[in-house]
Amino acid sequence: MGRGYLYLLPAGILFVLIEIIPIGYAIWMSFHKKLEFSPEMKWNGFENYLFILWSDEFLGSLINGGIFAGASVALQLILGLLLALILHQSFTGRGIFRSLVLLAYFIPTIATALIWQWICDPSYGILNRLLVKFSLTSSAINFFSNPQWAMLMVILVNAWNYTPFVIIVLLARLQTIPTSFYEVAQIEGASSWRRFFDITLPHLRSAILLVVLLRGIWMFNKFDLIWLLTSGGPAGKTTTLPILAYFVTFRQSNYGQGAALSVVMFLILIIFAVVYFRYFKPEKEIEVE
Predict the structure, then answer these.
(1) Is residue 247 helix, strand or coil?
(2) pLDDT digit string (tens) for 101-151?
(3) Closest by alpha carbon to 218, among 162, 152, 280?
(4) CA–CA dist 127, 157 (Å, integer)
(5) CATH for 56-285?
(6) pTM, two decimal places
């Protein structure tokens, strides 16, 4: 037993260095006033937290983050389930179509942002040209600078980039469902919809819950794609909590408030995870077939 713990010691030390110490330092800094050009940190208790929680920017960013995360996860789940069901069927060229669908997931985020900025450009973007050509709009729209379109476009681009992850997870689970279940149901006269709701969906429940948890956390923490597309604009319409934390820390040079904001985000995710495991109990979905 003692030797077993000794083998785990290097991993434990690495975990403390890259996880525990940075988190502890961020929590400690959140209770101090720390500015960029100040060499000292002054203890100010919960002042950073009170300032952040009562600010309009925090509430707006929290709402934006909830909209972005919720809509992104829902859209990715719907599209991922639909495409996974299609790609699970047998048809000519299925391997090629699977490769093409999964291609977007391997494109770097910076490349994704550039591609969609070119597509949506008001001067030469193909999207605006098509909209004007078919008289769907009277003039070109600058989607990422328009307050009415910015959040929607960021959500759509994000779904395009990360839906393949959902497809991979659901498609892998679909391939574990015994075909005999469908054969028996078909013999009994069950319709396609009945087979989907009685066989497919129950077997996908554990994978769907996993997707909701992982994508929910990742989308709530999403920074890079939003920053590259809109930088939190226009007029704060796409400013989420990670974007706000960046502004406070590096634009306003207030490291204490930035740390406090990061801790608040951390607590929100912990609450989300506790509620998720408390009410959905994904561990009970694990089946041995």
Answers:
(1) helix
(2) 888 888 899 999 999 999 999 888 899 999 998 888 888 899 999 999 999
(3) 162
(4) 13
(5) 1.10.3720.10
(6) 0.89
